[in-house]
Amino acid sequence: MTAPDGSTATPPRRGRRVVRWGLATVRPLLAMNFVSGAPTRMAAGVPDDAPNGLIEGPRVLNLLVVGGLSGSAIGVRSYDQGVAHQLAQRLHRLTGRGVEWETLAHPKLRLAATSETLQQLPGLASYDLVVLSPGIADLLAFMPIAAWRREFERLIWFLDAATARGARLLVTEVPAVSNYVQVGPFVSGVLSQDSRELSAIAAEVCESLPRAHYLTLPPITSTDFIDGAFSYSTLYRRWGSHLADQAVAVIDD
């Protein structure tokens, strides 16, 4: 529904129910049609070097970045160009502290794969800061919203129980990628609506946990494209810097 000023207006309550029902009906059909997920202009491989490092300094912070684009560092040659290292560098500059960083180098970006890998990861209680970026692969796979909520709740509750009491959990929104999906406007609209719903779920669940903080991300823009090709390194640098600025406010000294 479009408002007189050209913006997207919120449909009336009955209309929202109809929209939700329609999306719930069509989502599995879209998932069957796009078995490998809706195609985007942002597909790429993952690095093959070490997904961790140390920035020397006093009172070392232990940082873990997991899930989605941020955790996989998809699209760059080295994990040094990924969100985890960019975030660590910025944290070091802002705090003067050392940062030992690690990114969960899992080529499968689905939330279920992230959850499974985390539950097998030793030493979760040693991290001071865990950044979780969920949802983008599940979004492109048209995962049912209710199923995603259950999966997300299980994961965030597990992290809350498994990490140290002084640790902080930063959870990012599900990035809006509908403008970069190589499908028609209807499917793009479904993805846009789903990204808003998944992000709202993440924000709601984080509100129930004192150590969890929900964060928005700088949007993907034309500056992330160089000569028509998507530049992951540019995006990760912006995301890492933004997350560090937010993290400083919640890290216990």
CATH architecture: 3-Layer(aba) Sandwich
CATH topology: Rossmann fold
**Main sheet?**
6 strands, mixed
Indicate the percent of residues in helices: 40-55%
Count of helical segments?
Answer: 8
* Beta-strand content: 5-15%
CATH class descriptor name:
Alpha Beta
- Domain count, please report it: 1
CATH superfamily: SGNH hydrolase
Unreliable residue stretches:
1-11, 34-39
Average pLDDT for all residues: 82
Distance between the termini: 48 Å
Overall shape: globular
Taken in chain order, the helices and strands follow as: HEEHHEHEHHEHEEEH
Structural class: alpha/beta
Could you tell me the number of beta strands?
Answer: 8
Report on this structure.
This protein is an alpha/beta fold and 253 residues long. It has helices spanning 13-33, 68-72, 83-95, 111-119, 136-140, 145-162, 185-207, 232-248; strands at residues 52-55, 61-66, 99-103, 129-132, 168-172, 212-215, 225-226, 229-230. It has a single domain (40-248), classed as SGNH hydrolase (Rossmann fold). The chain is 44% helix and 13% strand. The strands form two sheets. It has a six-stranded mixed sheet, with helices on both faces. It has a two-stranded antiparallel sheet with strand order 7-8. The N and C termini lie far apart (48 Å).
Write the layout of secondary structure elements.
Blueprint: H1 13-33, E1 52-55, E2 61-66, H2 68-72, H3 83-95, E3 99-103, H4 111-119, E4 129-132, H5 136-140, H6 145-162, E5 168-172, H7 185-207, E6 212-215, E7 225-226, E8 229-230, H8 232-248
Helix pairs in contact: 3-8, 4-6, 6-7
